[in-house]
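Hey L., structure's done. Input below.
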Amino acid sequence: MRIFPILSLASMLAAVSPLCAQTTMEEFNYVTSGYKMQLAGGLDMKKGYRFEDLFSHDTRSASTGDVRTTQFKALFREGQQRPCAVMCILSNTSQTSKEYLCIPSYSSEPDVWNLAMKRILEFSEEDLTTITVGFAILASYYSGK
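Output:
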């Protein structure tokens, strides 16, 4: 049942979001695709921004035994103390590709949130479970700050 994990994700994201600055569409696009192109091309970090590694979490699939990893990074604008977005990188031991998901801040424009939710709904049931666990840890991480 996909509705429970999605409702759980929404409540966890709402708990974390007040600790972040508003996410722009440009920042959303950078997190979901620009960063991947930066890595592939050996390019420098986007000017005016920095990433802070938060944590990684592994989840083993009960059905296939694959290990799925969520890695979280906070994106900061230069000179700001709060992240403007959080990147979730989802990887799977049975695949070589990685998926990049942007978690926008609570105060972000509806268009940014709609894109984030659309992307979340595209994940498989097992990937969604992995992401949900990662988001729960992320909410706990930021609730202690």
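The chain has one domain: 22-143. The beta strands are 49-60, 67-77, 85-92, 99-104.

-- N.
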